[in-house]
């Protein structure tokens, strides 16, 4: 899968028959976060597909490794009240979500007002840019910024860094290689090229998959969902600290683990539905 595609906000089709039961088992503060995780592949209308294509690269200038493009060339530039200093490290990673929603509403109102005006020969036609956009692009940008994992992935993309794709389950062979080192043709271990941090990351992913394999009831699935949602909430605080320190390598590992936790939650939601039908 194209790593840039992973940045795209999903279609947010909730698994409605289970949403109420899930939300009733977790604190209210997690309900918004659940909305971002319990998704499937995007289902976009033709106009939205065109807008999604515009947002695919999220910037009007080519990212250069380690250097941020001008704020006005990114989705942060769409919401100057919420992000006056742009993305980290100059700006903040955590932000006021209420302020962002208010700014979005104001922009959508202005957009609707401008679209309702009758076109005249004297009306200026501005080229499509991230600062002069349509409602669909505003909504997609808003959705992207609300999700901490997608937001972090996007910021890394602006720095010219594409995060490794860990969407599939961590294979047992990969885990063993990380923990023990590759095995040579004679059965001897060869030099282990996986660093300690990578070993720890793959180990956590593998343990998560093992926990899912052991789930045998709706109650167990809900408990594991709750556990992962709390972990995802904690990740936002950790990412905020790491972006202030500009520790990009550590941020990448947290993003990878966060993606894996989100995939686990989606899988558990499907499993809880199957158990509920029995």
TrEMBL record:
Q: Biological process GO terms, please?
A: [2Fe-2S] cluster assembly
**Cellular component per GO, a single term:** mitochondrion
Query: Which molecular-function annotations from GO does this UniProt entry contain?
Result: ATPase activator activity; protein-folding chaperone binding
The signal sequence is none
- Please name the InterPro entries in this protein's record: HscB
Record region (Disordered) = 112-131
Q: Which domain of life is it from?
A: Eukaryota
Instruction: Quote the PANTHER family the UniProt record gives.
Output: IRON-SULFUR CLUSTER CO-CHAPERONE PROTEIN HSCB (PTHR14021)
Q: What is this protein called?
A: Co-chaperone Hsc20
